[in-house]
Design goal:
The chain has 133 residues and is mainly alpha-helical. The protein has six helices and three strands, in the order H-H-E-H-E-E-H-H-H.
Length: 133
């Protein structure tokens, strides 16, 4: 990803943030969103993806790590905070490339809401039913 593409992606991400409902913004206030070009090879391995494959880095658009809100307990000392990761290259690929920036922005929104959904306790079936699969 070129510096210009990265800057454009980040600009589109900011646009998505500006249109999120208040409830989603409240989650983002507590859970940082980290934008990365691609997942690290070790992360791909954790998901059973061979990182040496030519398009392996395109299989994962986003990731929620940490404890979902529905599983939080008062006595959870020493637990790492949740994070949301968005992977630029995969999102752009799923959008069909840079020909339609509006589609890239739409895919950013879908991926972000998908990961926010995990933070609030939704599973993959729930997210599919809501159109964020």
């Amino acid at each position: 990803m070129t510096p210009e593409e990265r800057a454009e992606f980040d600009r589109l991400f900011d646009g998505v943030l500006g249109r999120l409902p208040q409830q989603a913004l409240e989650v983002i206030d507590r859970v940082p969103v980290i934008l990365e070009d691609r997942p690290e090879p070790d992360l791909l391995r954790e998901f059973g993806i061979d990182p040496t494959g030519p398009d392996a880095h395109l299989e994962l658009c986003g990731l929620h790590t940490g404890v979902m809100d529905t599983e939080l307990e008062i006595e959870m000392d020493g637990v790492l905070p949740s994070q949301i990761h968005l992977f630029r290259e995969a999102i752009v690929c799923h959008a069909g490339g840079w020909d339609d920036p509006g589609e890239v922005e739409r895919q950013i929104g879908i991926t972000l809401l998908h990961e926010i959904g995990h933070q609030i306790g939704l599973d993959e079936d729930d997210l599919d039913d809501l159109g964020f699969g």
